[in-house]
Amino acid sequence: MVIFGRAGGATRRFFGVGGGGADSDDILQAVESEDEYIRCCGIVGFGFILVRSRDKAVLGSLTEATTSASWRAREAAAMAVQAIGDTDPELFRAIIEQWARSTHPLTLRAAAAGICEPRLLKDKTNAVLAVRVCRDATEWIVSQPADSRRDADTRTLRQALGYCWSVAVAADPENALPAFVSLEASDDTDVVWIVRENRKKARLRKVLET
Fold first, then answer.
1. What is the SS3 assignment for the chain?
2. HSE-up of 70 (CA within 13 Å, CB side)?
3. Could you give the CA distance from residue 210 to residue 206 in angstroms, rounded to a whole number?
4. Count of Cβ atoms closer than 10 Å to residue 130 Cβ
5. Model confidence over 112-156: pLDDT tens digits?
6. Taking residues 33-40, what's their average pLDDT?
7. What is the pLDDT of residue 20?
8. Mean pLDDT, rounded, of the chain
9. Residue 32: which residues within 8 A CB-CB, separation 6 or more?
10. Distance (Å, rounded) from C-alpha 36 to C-alpha 200?
11. Three-state SS string across 165-193, please?
12. How far is it, in rounded angstroms, from Cα 14 to Cα 16?
């Protein structure tokens, strides 16, 4: 999903090539901006700070952004963790695993959206983790009472799982396909919806046809 430039390119230009040379103070100042574009650039910039310093307070702020009322800010948080994945796979996986243990559906959504990125799933360890994140998030939805499932945040998580599974399966069919196919035995209405939406994706149809 593009929010302010392909693959965060606008963000990288905002903070300098690659973002690695961005001053932490500039990034933190951007996050406080009233301008949504600048604020989202700052959230993506959290990723650059974390690669350099692993600052727990910054990680807390990034995690908080995953539950923002602004969908652009939430998408920026996912882009930030993906930027970490490009340069520090161990830190990336640690953050994804932390988010995947959350009880907030929007943070669970950030974990799934953050790791289900094709370029990051070329790493076998990431691909295995992506399946686990998708499976656990799906199970979290199933565990919720009917009235909670109608909550907008839970619906947002379900929407993400409606495409994340297909990305995970396409990246690692041998490991991911059996996990996805097992969902088809469920008569849970949300799981049925997730399976149906993923089956519409060309990337998954290609796997299923081979």
1. CCCCCHHHHHHHHHHCCCCCCCCHHHHHHHHCCCCHHHHHHHHHHHHHHHHHHCCHHHHHHHHHHCCCCCHHHHHHHHHHHHHHHHHCHHHHHHHHHHHHCCCCHHHHHHHHHHHCCCCHHHCHHHHHHHHHHHHHHHHHHHHCCHHHHCCHHHHHHHHHHHHHHHHHHHHCHHHHHHHHHHHCCCCCHHHHHHHHHHHCCHHHHHHHHC
2. 16
3. 7
4. 29
5. 999 999 999 999 999 999 999 999 999 999 999 998 999 999 999
6. 91
7. 54
8. 90
9. 39, 42
10. 33
11. HHHHHHHCHHHHHHHHHHHCCCCCHHHHH
12. 6
What the block records as the tokens of 30 is 């951007």
Residue 2's pLDDT band (cuts 50, 70, 90): very low
Tokens at 56, concatenated: 């727990």
**Whole-structure pTM value:** 0.89
| pLDDT: which is higher, 28 or 18 | 28
